[in-house]
Amino acid sequence: MAYGTVSADIIQSSVPGVSLGAGNASIMKNRIINGAMGIAQRGTSTSITSNGQFCSVDRFRTYTNGTWGTGTFTATQSSSAPTGFSNSLGITITATDALSTSTASYIIGQTIEGNNTYDLGYGTANAKTVTLSFWVQSSLTGTFGGVIQNNAGNYSYPFSYTISSANTWTQISVTIAGPTTGTWLTGTSGSIYVYWSLGANSSLLAAAGSWTSTANISGATGQTNIISTNGATFYITGVQLEVGSSATGFEYRQYGQELALCQRYFYKAASGLGASGLGEAFAAGTYYNTAQISAFLNFPVTMRTAPTLYYTSVAGYYRFDASNTSVSFSTLTTYYVAATGTMIYNASTSGTQGNGGIMSTTNASSYIGFTAEL
What we know:
With 374 residues, this protein is mainly β. The protein has two domains: 3-263, Jelly Rolls (Sandwich); 267-371. It is 2% helix and 41% strand. The protein contains one helix and 25 strands. The chain has one helix at residues 255-263, and strands spanning 3-7, 10-13, 45-48, 61-63, 72-78, 88-95, 105-113, 130-138, 142-150, 156-163, 170-176, 190-200, 205-206, 219-220, 233-243, 266-271, 281-289, 292-298, 308-311, 318-322, 325-329, 333-335, 341-346, 356-361, 367-371. The strands form five sheets. The protein has an eight-stranded antiparallel β-sheet with strand order 1-2-11-8-15-6-5-3, with no helix packed on it.
C-alpha cells in the first residue's frame, strides 16, 4: 500500500483497488446512504442550475451557504469508478462563476437524519470521533475542500484534501474529532451535513482541521474552485462516514437494502412505459363517483415524514383502466397522506361509480414520485 500523509488528519491512496482498513466492523456503520452511488430513482443525468436540486443519484443534492450565481453543471450517475465500485457521481461544469460575489457558494453533499446520529453525542462532552472516507478524481489538481456542518450552518469543520494526478482515482480519509458544543438536531430533522465544495468566495472559507462557530462556512481556505473552470470534471464514490479514528473497508449493502434506505426519503412510484412498453401500473382504485377516480398507494417503506407528490403533469400521461374502458388524464392529487401511504385521485374523468381499475402511465416521460427529503 502506498499512502501519503497530506495533513495530520488526512490519509490518501492513489492506487485503484486499495481499500483502507479491512472489512465491515458492524451493521450500518456507514451513516451515508447510497455512498456507492448505485441508486438513481430520479434518472441518470440532471442539469444543475440552482440550489436544492438532486444530483441524479439518490440522497446527494446541491446546497449553498450564500448565493447561487452563474455557475451550472451536469450531474450524472457515471459508470466511471475505481475497482470495487460500479458507479460514481460525476460533475461537469457547463457555466462558470468567478466567485467575485462575497456570498457565492456551490456545494454538493448529503444531510444525515437525526435518528441516525444519536450515538455520536455531538454537542456534548462525549462527542465521538468520526472518519469520512471517499474515492475522488478530477480533471483539475490541487487542494480541494469540504465541510461537516450542523443544521443551522453556524458550527462547522472545514477539511481539505489533495488530488495530485488529474483524472486518477484517489482515496481520501479525513478524521474529525467530535464537536463538544454547537446545536445538533435529532429525530427526523437534518442533523449532520456532509459537504464537498465546488467553489466559494474566500469570505466563506476557513482553515481546515478544526471546528469553527463562524456561520456559513462553505469549504477550506486555499481550495481549488472547480466551478470557475468550464468543462472541469469531478467524480466521487465510496463515501463513508463512520465512528472511529481511522477508515475501514467500505460497507457494501445489498442493492435492495440500499434502495429501501433511499426510499425513506424519495420513492419513485412509476416512470415511463416500463419493461412491457405498455405503461407502469402504480395504484388500484375505483370510481368514487361518476367523475372521480380514487386509489390507494402504499409506500414500500415508512418514509421520513408524510411526503409530497412529485409528478409530470401533461395531457394524457396517465390512464385508468376499468371494466374494459380506458380513460386518460393529466393531473393527480393526494389526500390522507401519511408516511406509510396515500390516497390519490383524479376528478376530471367520467365512469360508472363503483367500478374498479388500475392507474398506470402512458408516456415515456410519465413520472410519479414522492419526496420526504431533508
